[in-house]
Amino acid sequence: MKLTFWGASRQVTGSMYLLELGSAETFDDYKILIDCGTDMEREIDYGQPLTSQSFFPFEASQINLVLLTHAHIDHTGNIPMLYREGYEGQVLCTSATAELTDLLLHDAAILNLKKIKKAEGESRKKAKKMDRLLKKGDLYLEKDVNDALHNFVTIQFRRKFKIRDGLEVTFIPAGHLLGAAHIILTVTDNGERKTICFSGDIGRRNYPLHIDPEQIPEVDYMLCETTYGAREHEDRMSPEDALADVITRTCINMPGRLIIPAFSVGRTQALLYTLNRLYSERGIKPIKVFSDSPLAYASTKVYQKNLRLLNKDAQEFYEENDTLFDFENLQYIQSEKSSKAISNYGEPCIIISSSGMIAGGRVEQHVAANINNSYCTILLVGYASEGTLGWRLMNGQKTIKIKDQEVKVMANVEKIDVFSGHGDKNDLLKFVKYQSPAKLKKIFLIHGEPESMEVFKETLNNEGYNDVIIPEKGESFEL
């Protein structure tokens, strides 16, 4: 079989890997695409004329099957494009991944429609904006999303599923997100059995709501993510202690407001659940909390529905309190008008809004409205890609450009990593060390910055794993 790396190679986003089964000469028997994510770092030459060139570096109609590790958009975001370009097969994933992917792709389609409408018109400026959108290419709409979702087939965790003779797949809980999985493929060719693991994103242990990532059986080949391959999580406090400390200092000891940029799916639910525990178990006075994201509201319902997939602590908390996310003074914000009205709320409050990197979304509006407020604290709780507003704030820039204006940062900026959904260097190493160095033939490092990959490669080498590869985008390997 042949494995080609078409995404998240020497970068974090755009996970997409093509596994081709068949003879060593043709590899034309069966083609499997593992993940099909949005590449947020994709370079586009807007100076070139618009062409009808394929969006993908392969023929979409020739793919036989798609497998998904989890729902995040950098793993699922280009699935509608795949169907638009001729793919006619199924998408296999867990039931929770299917539900969350439905929400995320429809949300992306709504944003795409807004972008198109803003670019419509006869002015030169509008025409230029539309030209850039068309060259970017991935402007799928609701119909494209519905066409794709119609072909989703859900698979249970831990049960080996036979795709065809000589090909089986197993989804093993990865912990990173509701429904997230490590994917194990077992291929039998000419009497020889080979196994390959696609790690997906590896969760961290003792995380709010999510189960711990599970051990996988020994395999022949492994693709391992390296988002935090070069670092250990800094905070040693529990999520409850860390959040209680920030709230006390920013909203109780002084009449301030706390803005928490958080991804709508996964991170927001962890924060709301932790706040609920603080208010119900520690006697902290419930401060007004605005959860400002329609997507977060919808995905919270999916979490509530899939209680059986959450960790033991969450299930026990639900049994005692009959709720995971609802508590006194929590208000879910739906309309943009209500979102803007939060600025008029004069009492101490907590605003949880997306995007987590402050790269667009409603949270950018809240940051812009409060960046000059010395009684405001912006709490960064996760990874932010270089160049995003979140990254600039995290790195202590004294002035930032927001809403096309350069402004002085007078708000307090803090960061904690107890709510990061990714396992750190030690978690990744533990995941790999379930494998025997003698049996594991190759480890491919993916989904990380180049520096992170190099550090983790050296770490693995020191543990006796010698054939560790950092593939380039488009690079292929015979397995």
UniProtKB/TrEMBL annotation:
- GO molecular function annotation: hydrolase activity; RNA endonuclease activity
Which InterPro entries does its entry note? Beta_Casp, MBL, Metallo-B-lactamas, RibonucZ/Hydroxyglut_hydro, RMMBL
Q: Which residue range or ranges hold the Beta-Casp domain?
A: 268-393
Q: Which SMART domains match?
A: Beta-Casp (SM01027), Lactamase_B (SM00849)
User: Any idea where the Metallo-beta-lactamase domain is?
Assistant: 13-231
Superkingdom, natural source: Bacteria
- Keyword terms, alphabetized: Hydrolase
| Bilayer-spanning residue ranges | none
Q: Does the keyword Nucleotide-binding apply?
A: no
What PANTHER family does this protein's entry cite?
CLEAVAGE AND POLYADENYLATION SPECIFICITY FACTOR FAMILY MEMBER (PTHR11203), INTEGRATOR COMPLEX SUBUNIT 11 (PTHR11203:SF37)
Name of the protein in question = Metallo-beta-lactamase family protein
